[in-house]
Amino acid sequence: MAVYRIKIGENEYRIEITDSGIKVNDEDIVADLLQLNDAGLYLMNHGDDKLELHMRVEGENSYLVLADGKQILAHVESDRDQKISRTTSAVENELRAPMPGLVISVNVEPGQMVHEGQAVCVIESMKMQMAIHAPRDGIIKETLVKSEQKVDKDALLVVLE
């Protein structure tokens, strides 16, 4: 199970992603999020409703979302981020799966330079795709997964030097 806290303005939402579905503030939600391109365009299907979303990284754990003509700044943290200090260098060098799922793509290879916030791989779970971003600038030391590979929550995906 992966748990995230998303703050939009003064409102905070608890998002829980499990093998059986998604909950927002303990309420079951049936929705799909489909990444349409690498420029941050997504399509969200919620019942009969479809919503086009444009998202871009706006800093560490912050995203600017344009939806239905409105701009929203969302700050996202996992429960794990809130509980674990990021002072341990091993943690900053390891990119792990935030949820169980299927690796859709691996966008880097050993020896490649990456920049903070760059998508290094994409995982799909419950028809929702999530890009895994580099936590800092660095060089890829090792990739431990391949496209179409199933992974468990907290599986080691990529290691930075």
Total domain modules: 2
Q: Uncertain spans, ≥5 residues at pLDDT below 50?
A: 83-90
| SS elements, strand count | 17
The string of secondary-structure elements, in order, is EEEEEEEEEHHEEEEEEEE
Strand content: over 45%
Radius of gyration: 16 Å
Looking at how many chains there are and whether they match, the oligomeric state comes to single chain
* Number of helical elements: 2
CATH topology annotation of the largest domain? Glycoprotein, Type 4 Pilin
Structure overview:
There is one protein chain. The chain is built from two helices and 17 strands. It has 161 residues and is mainly β. It folds into two domains: 2-79, Glycoprotein, Type 4 Pilin (2-Layer Sandwich), CATH 3.30.700; 87-160, OB fold (Dihydrolipoamide Acetyltransferase, E2P) (Beta Barrel), CATH 2.40.50. The strands form three sheets. It has a nine-stranded antiparallel β-sheet. The chain has a four-stranded antiparallel β-sheet with strand order 10-17-15-12. Strands 14-13-11-16 form a four-stranded antiparallel β-sheet, with no helix packed on it. The longest helix is centred in the middle third of the chain and has 5 residues, at 79-83. The two termini are 28 Å apart. The relative contact order is 0.17.
